[in-house]
Specification:
By secondary structure, this protein is mainly α. The protein has one domain. The chain has four helices and no strands. The protein has helices at 3-13, 15-39, 44-65, 70-92. The longest helix is centred in the first third of the chain and has 25 residues, at 15-39. It is elongated and about 45 Å long.
Length: 93
Amino acid sequence: MNLYNIGLADFKKNFIMYVPLSIILQSCLGSISIFYLTQLPYTMSTFLGVTICTIVCMLYNASIMAQLKHKWIFNFLILSIVVNILLLLVYRI
């Protein structure tokens, strides 16, 4: 098994525990990304970064509220974390 399948299996097994923790994690990470983006001068690229960050964070939260399959929720969590980390790296450096 690869790392993704191990993580997905653990996420499915402990879904009730991971949902609140992952909401807090991705919300904090998204907030940090937004904070640094708003410190930059207002340009179209920073506005696009704020929009992308908001969309991926809301996508994850909506997938939980819509009670999608665990695999979809896990994939949206990974997407949210990766996008927010990339935004931090791109706009902070």
